[in-house]
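Notes on consecutive records. When two proteins share a document, each keeps its own sequence and its own C-alpha cell line. Never mix them. Below: protein one.
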Amino acid sequence: MTSPLKASMTSLCVLKIKKIKFYPFSRNLVQRDRFARSVEPKCILYMKSRGSRQWSEVGRTERLHNALSPEWSQQMVLDYYFEEKQVRRKG
C-alpha cells in the first residue's frame, strides 16, 4: 500500500518556466531599394505554440528611421520552457 503523500507527489507535474528578456538588434542591413530616401526597419518576433504548426506573433518593435544597424530600445519578455524545443523566428 502506498502512502497518500507519495501518491499525490507522483501525480504532480512540475513545469519549469523562466522569463527571459530579448533585446533585438541588427547589424549592416542591406538597403534593398536604391531609390528610397530612408530605411525604416522594425523587428517582429514569431514563435510556434507548443503542439501547433502555426506561427504566432510574440512581440514587435517600433520602426526606426534611417538606420542600417538598428538597436531597438524596446525589450520583449518571453517564457522559456526548460528541456523543451522552442522554435522562434524574426521577421
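Protein two starts on the next line and is unrelated to protein one.
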Amino acid sequence: MTLDDPAIAAIHEVRHQISASHSHDPRLLVEYYRELERKYQSRVLPSHDDAMAVTVSAYEPVETTSHVLAEVKSADDGDKADTD
C-alpha cells in the first residue's frame, strides 16, 4: 500500500469532507464522532482496559464511501433545517 493508493485517497477525501462540514473545528469533529459512537453503540465494545472503546466491524457490512458521504450530507441538511 502506497500513499497514492486509490483506497487511501478515498479515505482521505471522506475525512477531509467530514472535517470541512464541521468547519475544520476539532471540538465539532469530536462532538460529531461521539454522536456516531452513540448512534452505533451496538457496534462498540469496551476495550480490555475500559479506557478506550474499539469498533467491532468484522461481522458488520462495510459502509461504502458514498454511504458515509450521504450520511454526512443528510446530517448537514438536518442541521441547516434546524437553523432555518
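For the record: The beta strands are 44-46, 53-55.
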